[in-house]
Amino acid sequence: MLHIAWSPEYCHPLPTGHRFPMEKYELLPQQLMYEGTVDESNFFKPKPASEGLILEAHDSDYWNRLNSLQLTRSEERATGFPLSRALVDREVLIAGGSVEAAVYAMENKIAMNIAGGTHHAYSNRGEGFCLLNDQAIAARYLQKKGLIQKILIIDLDVHQGNGTAEIFKDDPSVFTFSMHGAKNYPHRKEKSDLDVGLEDGTSDKEYLKTLNISLDQILNRFEPDFIMYQSGVDVLESDKLGRLSLTMEGVRMRDDIILSLSKELGLPMICSMGGGYSEKISQIIEAHSQVYRLAQEIFF
């Protein structure tokens, strides 16, 4: 069975006019159940990640100041969110969701987190709507428990996974791959194990060709035991922040490539949703829904 982490706390309200589409975390599970892709039994409410596990991926000084709501004004501005207790608790819960999803993936080959993909969170600071790095925390959990050794993080959000790259920069057991808009945020990129910067306006054909070539290169260099997939849909042509030109079908084909690769290699994987900022919320929900449909089709 496909296990999906979700909690009402994922839908933490933001001030009116805030550009982050928090409502997608409520609408996405509704859409998946409405169309019959999943039912209520597929969802589990995660437990918050423990402080000890958070500290496996994040500096204690940063975590203590974040948890006590003592970030500086400039640090808070960098996250893009107004800091609050509810927001911090939400991030801790999302990280816990990716941890539990990873455990379910070990049993069933795939699991999902309705939220997550918080790849701009560094070991010592937050950026770009990300306070804690859920994939890094989940990766450390799997390794600490001795469940796996080598992890491949595939980050296909339109923005580089700079925080993830920083956290694992000196760790050969985790391969970080980010394919993103070359001229998009963040303007100062970190060094992943493989970075592929795409020009503005990149379309389906070029994108998918580049992705396949990159995956071949990675698998010639690295033999993973587990895949973590950041499946941001801000690569859509309709995205307000993306600047690429993928169609809805192009995003579906992208997701199909990644999920089919995991299935072919027999590797467990988790999917975190990442970004999506199209003007119409229906486009965001449809783009995210596709990866769940594919998970059911390919694995179950």
Automatic annotation (TrEMBL):
Question: GO terms for biological process?
Answer: epigenetic regulation of gene expression
Q: Which InterPro entries match?
A: HDAC_classIV, HDACs, His_deacetylse_dom, His_deacetylse_dom_sf, Ureohydrolase_dom_sf
Per its record, how is this protein called by name? Acetoin utilization deacetylase AcuC
Organism, as annotated: Algoriphagus zhangzhouensis
Keyword annotations of the record: Hydrolase
Q: Which family does it belong to?
A: Belongs to the histone deacetylase family.
Q: Spell out the Pfam families in the cross-references.
A: Hist_deacetyl
Q: Does the keyword Transcription apply?
A: no
**Which GO molecular function entries does the Swiss-Prot or TrEMBL record give?**
histone deacetylase activity; hydrolase activity
Give the classification, highest ranks.
Bacteria, Pseudomonadati, Bacteroidota, Cytophagia, Cytophagales
Q: Which domain of life is it from?
A: Bacteria
In its keyword annotation, does this UniProt entry include Hydrolase?
Answer: yes
Which CDD domains does the protein's record reference? HDAC_classIV (cd09993)
Residue stretches making up the Histone deacetylase domain: 18-288
